[in-house]
Specification:
- By secondary structure, the chain is α/β, with parallel strands linked by helices.
- The protein folds into two domains: 2-198, no CATH class; 204-368, Rossmann fold, CATH 3.40.50.
- It is built from 13 helices and eleven strands.
- The protein has helices at 2-11, 13-19, 46-50, 54-69, 72-75, 81-98, 118-127, 150-155, 161-182, 188-198, 204-217, 257-274, 316-324; strands spanning 24-26, 35-37, 42-44, 220-221, 237-238, 243-250, 276-283, 293-295, 331-336, 351-355, 365-368.
- Helix 6 crosses helix 7 (118-127) and helix 11 packs parallel to helix 12 (257-274).
Length: 371
């Protein structure tokens, strides 16, 4: 394990610096079948480590270090423990594999989960009715809640420790990224990951409402006032007219139906506040057959027809359609994971992206959609 950690520090200083923050502790009495970390130490099963080569041991060390750096111990909330830990592994393993590490034999991996956070993966595991009584391979945390060993009990975090550790790991994540970047050994994908987890987290609903309300407030009119006021000057004034929104939904399969319904509910609530005419467009690689659909200011933003898609993702048809209609909307709101083909040029109107995942659109305002 010492040799694997040293090689990590030399070859992959970002992961090595994170792994170095976890003291290695051999697990007693077999309560840990593989590796596990509480954010303070890395516990390991001696027999499991003996079964790995050095490259696979690098993967095991990096996996636990990434769980800590991404605050998986802190972000669980009230989620089911085993499902959450499995979701965390599904989120971390593709990152390490893409970074060139050799996975351990127990590594769980599904391509459809690549680029997703544990919070996004967790409900999918629930929907698949994953058996919570049986631990999936590589679930990470091997604690038995029925008969805990003294070491296992000692490993539990005390009240207040979790918040302190979360703050420390955020600082460690930033410092490790900076050191690796200065050494020229931080991949672009890892840098995007770090940016994603260090950026300020604000509720996406509040940001969406704030942006659309600002659009409504800042919509000025230069119409000359009534001559009876006696002032010949023309000053900009706020219009009382409705704003014109185009709302696009990515139906390529990355956005789930429940999330679309939640999104529609938020748009409808905002629509009741700001008088907005909304043109709804659903698109994967092509615009759907039943679209666009127009909702006037007095209409409820509710679509009864089941939204279908599942193809590749191409954002260009929506922008092309807006151009063909000679439209100049006040804002285009696009609900997506931002992984697809973008227009070559930025449009002349504001684009607001509500993004699931870590991808960054090449233009416009990005709002992180994950709760």
């Amino acid at each position: 394990m010492a040799a694997a950690r040293t090689r990590l520090i030399l070859d992959k200083p970002f992961l090595g610096a994170l792994a170095l923050r976890l003291p290695l502790v051999e697990a007693e009495q077999g309560w840990c079948q593989t590796t596990w970390s509480n954010g303070k130490s890395l516990y390991y099963n001696h027999s499991y480590i003996d079964s790995l080569d050095v490259a696979q041991t690098q993967f095991a060390l990096s996996r636990e270090a990434m769980h800590c750096a991404l605050l998986h111990f802190y972000r669980r909330a009230n989620r089911v423990k085993k499902l959450w830990e499995t979701a965390c592994n599904f989120a971390v393993n593709p990152i390490l594999i893409d970074d060139g590490l050799k996975p351990t034999p127990d590594t769980v991996f599904l391509p459809e989960f690549s680029g997703m956070t544990a919070e996004e993966i967790y409900p999918m595991l629930q929907e698949n009715e994953l058996q919570q009584e049986e631990k999936p391979p590589g679930a990470g945390d091997d604690n038995s809640e029925q008969s805990e060993s003294p070491q296992q009990q000692q490993a539990k975090l005390k009240p207040g420790e979790m918040e302190m550790l979360a703050s420390q790991w955020q600082q460690r994540l930033a410092a490790a990224a900076q050191q690796a970047q200065q050494a020229g050994k931080l991949s672009a994908e890892m840098m995007r990951l770090v940016d994603f987890f260090l950026q300020p987290k604000l509720p996406w609903r509040s940001l969406l409402a704030q942006h659309l309300n600002a659009t409504a407030r800042n919509d000025y009119s230069y119409i000359r006032p009534s001559s009876r006021r006696g002032d010949p000057a023309v000053f900009p004034g706020l219009r009382s007219e409705e704003i014109d929104l185009v709302v696009a939904v990515d139906t390529s399969g990355s956005i789930r139906e429940a999330e679309i319904e939640q999104f529609f509910s938020e748009i409808n609530a905002i629509k009741g506040q700001i008088r907005a005419r909304i043109t709804l467009v659903c698109c994967d690689a092509l615009i759907g057959d039943d679209f666009p659909v127009v909702f006037e200011a007095w209409d409820e933003f509710k679509f009864e027809t089941q939204i279908e898609g599942g193809g590749g993702t191409d954002f260009r048809p929506v922008f092309r359609w807006i151009e063909q209609q000679d439209m100049n909307p006040d804002t285009l709101v696009y609900f997506t994971d931002a992984c697809g083909e973008f227009p070559e040029y930025e449009p002349p109107y504001p684009a607001l992206w509500l993004v699931k995942g870590k991808a960054k659109p090449p233009f416009g305002v990005r709002i992180q959609l994950n709760d």
